[in-house]
Amino acid sequence: MSFAPHWKDENTDYLVEALLCLENQDDAYRLLDDLCTISEIKALAQRLQVARMLSQDVTYNTIAASTGASTATISRVKRCLHYGADGYQRVLQRLEEEK
Which pLDDT score, from 0 to 100, does residue 68 have? Predict the structure, then answer.
């Protein structure tokens, strides 16, 4: 059974296909550079780092000090970790397995 978020449409399908066709880190950096602003890239990276730290039971204060994320961002990521679509957990688990 596949996941179908409420925002799924032809454009987002194409975006997901583009992400899936990336072959290496260089491809990913190039696409992100063309697709997003630096602020958007930094925000996405920050959220992923927050998710990683939350999954390691790091405290909010430590996460905020280490990443610069607001407590609102940390709370939102935590909510997604516990009640979201499991995207963070799946990626974090795969990244850990690759180590």
Answer: 97
